[in-house]
Structure prediction request, 166 residues.
Amino acid sequence: MTDTRVPPPLTGDELTVLNNWLEWHRATLAVKCEGLSDDQLRLRSAEPSIMSLLGLVRHMAHVERSWFRVVLNGEDIPKLWGKELDNDNDFKQVDSAKVQEAFDVWQEEIEHARRISSAKPLDAVGERHGGECSHRWILVHMIEEYARHNGHADLLRERIDGVTGE
Prediction:
């Protein structure tokens, strides 16, 4: 695996630190998926779990879209992967999912998120379930979301080919 991640700075203003940690975790998921075949990316963890690396990529594309475009930016756009029919479709539908499409959509949603985030102050608020949600909270939540799922990704990758790491 080629690891080109840049470690987050140990000092800096709040926005710089938050953005760098989010970028670190986005890149970590990419590293965990690097060099695997489509079949390996589809490999599920252990029953009854439906989790796979491809499912995680699809899930994080949805999460990026939901928090930045829908909540923070107020866009009225459809959910990805048929999640309006079944909230777990990002994980359930990996056997027939197009791998490159999933990675492309994930990267597109990250680009949308970066653009939206860079245009908003940390105190900007969006709406979620009728309440306010700050940009700051969204960034912290995204770091937490990636960190949790990167732990899953590490276990999945170790199961696939024995590779482990931060």
